[in-house]
Amino acid sequence: MQLHAAGAWGLICPGSPEEVARARRWTRDVLRAHPRVDDVLVVSELGTNALTHTAAHVLQVMLTVTEGRVTVAVTDSGGTPEGPKVTEAAEEAIHGRGLSIVMALASRLSVTGDEAGRTVTAELPC
User: Fold this and answer.
1) What H or E segment, with its residue span, contains residue 99?
2) Interhelix angle for 98-105 vs 41-53, to 10°?
3) Fewest Cβ atoms closer than 10 Å to its Cβ: which of 23, 50, 87, 114?
4) Which helix (H) or strand (E) holds 120?
5) Out of 92-96, 98-102, 118-122, which region has the weakest mean confidence (pLDDT)?
6) Are 15 and 60 in contact (CB under 8 A)?
7) Comparing 22 with 6, which gets the higher pLDDT?
8) Cβ atoms 34, 88 nearer than 8 A
9) With bands split at pLDDT 50, 70 and 90, how would you rate the model's confidence at 104?
10) 108 vs 78: CA distance, rounded Å
């Protein structure tokens, strides 16, 4: 198995929906040889939440890889008084499962910041 080097990478994107796909491709490129490469879904979910539920003019993605984990942090531009929360979506609902999916993949999920900007961080164990 090829080992992935530890390090930190960052990406700053304009706050538009097509940038979520760009962030996902970028994450796949950074993690291409890492066992958690298929968990780029976390970036999609956190990025989509940031754009959908805030006034995000800029989307920042930070990946940190250490020996035991991959940390994905997505920062938005804020604009709403409430932070992200896990909801239970109705079975027929199209939306409302994003943070639940992230929590199923992550060993830890944290939210920092306020209406001026929030960072949602997911820690994925290796």
Assistant:
1) helix 98-105
2) 150
3) 114
4) strand 117-125
5) 92-96
6) no
7) 22
8) no
9) confident
10) 22
**How far is residue 31's CA from residue 49's CA, in Å, rounded to a whole number?**
22
Q: Quote the pTM value.
A: 0.84
**Three-state DSSP state, 29:** helix
Q: Collect all residues with Cβ–Cβ distance below 8 Å to 86 and sequence separation of at least 6.
A: 99, 100, 103
How far is it, in rounded angstroms, from Cα 66 to Cα 75?
20
- How far is Cα 42 from Cα 9, in angstroms, rounded to an integer? 16
Q: Which two tokens stand for residue 61?
A: 């993605």
Q: Which residues, 6 or more positions from 20, have their beta carbon under 8 angstroms from its beta carbon? A: 43, 44, 47, 48, 51, 59
Task: State the amino acid at position 39 in one-letter form.
Answer: D
User: Rounded CA gap, 121 and 46, in Å?
Assistant: 9
Got the DSSP string for 35-58? TTGGGGHHHHHHHHHHHHHS--SE
CA distances from 75 to 8, 20, 56, 67, 97 (A): 15, 13, 9, 24, 19
